[in-house]
């Protein structure tokens, strides 16, 4: 295997050519397997980075301002005060209103069983609703719905809350004078609306009500008490009294969608970031109503009957976002794990009369899908974040969002979920299995490579010891043989 000389005569032994070829073969094979393993790990991330809009270097993000901000030219620090959030402003305003109304309750001026309102109470409420900027600057979305059943039995718990309500206008009263009580207020305008569930609200505002009985309206105001109300031809019920703080908006009558209209696609907007990021569009709410009306059991029966043709995207649903027009309103399926669930209880009305959105993300291999469900995730019978699932639903649009701590926007599909089913991937996840196989093969090759290297070094050392021993023996033999010949000649 090992010869003491290679080419010219030298004392350093070389390797047998067959052994050299073997070592080179294992070295090249090791490098090849290791390269395949590394590419399998790194390539999807490289592709994902290359496909991001505006790929390449990212900006360092917004400037973080500490306790002491930047300095002016004369060395004075610039301090920046963070303004209160809408939630914080709402909490402060509601605390003030609750304290104010509590004093009226203690004085006996604010009573829930009384048919009329005390003028001092109305003056204070109207002054707050018209002139208190802390209240008037709160956006519509931060008004909350009353817990009507609880409030009916205990009005004090919600007295002073900023409340939204929507329903059909049933009655408009004649304006009543209210001069010299609140700046800019000369008359009061009252009306009554009834919700789709049959709850009545009395509303009070300082400007004319530009709607007629029968219209569906959305109102925002301060809840201050309950009051008996007798609807036409009905029995007395409890109504909830609001002093309005914002303009009256539009609400929608009850609806049951049983069929998807392809013409709705014209109303879906996704050209710009703002359009693609929004879901507050009429077709979205109508599709949500369609899925909710059909029900989970109804969907499964129709699905088993082959009524819905599916586009199966497997573990990568990217083509939905690449070609949104081709898949609009089509039934699709995708696989992955559902994570980051979020529940949004809607406080304002929408065309589909949807009161709750259950959102989440479907995490695929280096890809995400936005999911929205009209029913809780618990209804589908899987473990969020743990089970590998197959999600079936209706593709709505290409959705854009900016992840936390990143600057660039992502484009992913938005799917309205119809069903979720756990699936077994123990025999299907070939990609992960192959990565482990290549990793194991690389480890085995490393062991073999080092074994051969150390074995050859041991053989070289043994050869050198034998070579030196044999050489010394030959030298001693020559010395001994040469002395005897000289003695014989003499």
Total of helices: 11
List segments where confidence is low: pLDDT < 50 over at least 5 consecutive residues: 1-12, 47-69, 485-490
Strand content: 15-25%
Q: Write the H/E string, N to C.
A: EEHHHHHEEEEEEEHHHEHHEEEEEH
* Helix content class: 25-40%
Roughly how many Å apart are the termini? 47 Å
Largest sheet: 5 strands, mixed, barrel
For the CA atoms, what is the radius of gyration?
40 Å
Structure summary, number of beta strands: 15
The assigned structural class equals: alpha+beta
Short structural summary:
With 490 residues, this protein is an alpha+beta fold. The protein contains eleven helices and 15 strands.
Overview of the structural elements:
This protein is an alpha+beta fold. It is 36% helix and 24% strand. The chain contains 11 helices and 15 strands. The chain has helices at residues 17-51, 86-107, 119-131, 133-136, 148-153, 273-277, 282-294, 296-304, 318-322, 324-327, 430-489, and strands at residues 2-3, 14-15, 162-172, 176-177, 187-194, 200-205, 216-229, 237-244, 249-250, 310-312, 331-345, 356-364, 367-373, 388-401, 410-422. It has a 5-stranded mixed beta barrel with strand order 3-5-6-8-7. Strand 12 (356-364) and strand 13 (367-373) form a beta hairpin. The longest helix has 60 residues, at 430-489. The radius of gyration is 40 Å and the shape is elongated. The chain starts with a strand and ends with a helix. Mean pLDDT is 83; it is low at 1-12, 47-69 and 485-490.
């Amino acid at each position: 295997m090992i010869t003491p000389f290679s080419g010219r005569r030298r004392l350093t032994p070389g390797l047998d050519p067959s052994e050299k070829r073997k070592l080179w073969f294992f070295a090249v094979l090791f490098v090849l397997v290791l390269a395949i393993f590394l590419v399998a790990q790194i390539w999807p991330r490289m592709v994902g980075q290359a496909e991001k809009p505006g790929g390449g270097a990212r900006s360092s993000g917004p400037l973080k301002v500490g306790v002491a901000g930047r300095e002016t030219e004369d060395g004075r620090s610039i301090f920046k005060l963070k303004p209160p959030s809408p939630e914080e402003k709402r909490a402060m305003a509601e605390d003030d209103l609750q304290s104010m109304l509590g004093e009226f309750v203690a004085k006996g001026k604010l009573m829930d069983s009384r048919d009329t309102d005390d003028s001092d109470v109305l003056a204070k409420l109207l002054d707050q609703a018209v002139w208190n900027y802390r209240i008037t600057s709160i956006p519509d979305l931060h008004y909350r719905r009353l817990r009507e059943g609880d409030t009916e039995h205990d009005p004090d718990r919600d007295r002073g809350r900023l409340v939204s309500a929507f329903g059909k206008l049933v009655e408009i009263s004649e304006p009543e004078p209210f001069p010299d009580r609140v700046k800019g207020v000369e008359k009061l305008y009252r009306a009554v609306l009834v919700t789709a569930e049959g709850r009545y609200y009395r509303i009070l505002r300082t400007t004319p009500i530009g709607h007629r009985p029968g219209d569906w309206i959305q109102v925002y105001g301060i809840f201050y008490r309950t009051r008996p109300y007798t609807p036409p031809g009905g029995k007395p019920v409890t109504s909830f009294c609001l002093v309005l703080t914002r303009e009256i908006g539009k609400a929608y009558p009850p609806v049951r969608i049983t069929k998807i209209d392809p013409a709705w696609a014209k109303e879906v907007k996704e050209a710009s970031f703002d359009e693609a990021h929004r879901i507050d569009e009429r077709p979205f709410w109508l599709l949500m109503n369609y899925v909710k009306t059909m029900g989970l059991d109804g969907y499964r029966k129709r699905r088993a009957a082959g009524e819905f043709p599916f586009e199966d995207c497997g573990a990568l649903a990217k083509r939905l976002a690449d070609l949104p027009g081709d898949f609009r309103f089509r039934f699709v399926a995708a696989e992955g794990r559902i994570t980051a669930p979020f529940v949004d209880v809607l406080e304002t009305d929408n065309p589909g009369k949807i009161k709750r959105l259950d959102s989440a993300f479907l995490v695929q291999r280096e890809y995400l899908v936005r999911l929205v469900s009209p029913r809780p995730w618990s209804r589908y019978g899987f473990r969020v974040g743990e089970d590998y699932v197959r999600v079936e639903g209706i593709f709505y649009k290409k959705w854009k969002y900016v992840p936390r701590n990143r600057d660039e926007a992502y484009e992913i599909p938005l799917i309205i979920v119809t069903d979720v089913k756990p699936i077994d991937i123990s025999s299907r996840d070939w990609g992960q299995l192959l990565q482990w196989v290549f990793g194991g093969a690389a480890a085995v090759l490393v062991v073999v490579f080092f074994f051969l290297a150390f074995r050859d070094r041991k053989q070289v050392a043994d050869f050198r010891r034998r070579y030196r021993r044999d050489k010394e023996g030959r030298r001693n033999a020559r010395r001994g043989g040469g002395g005897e010949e000289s003695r014989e000649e003499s």
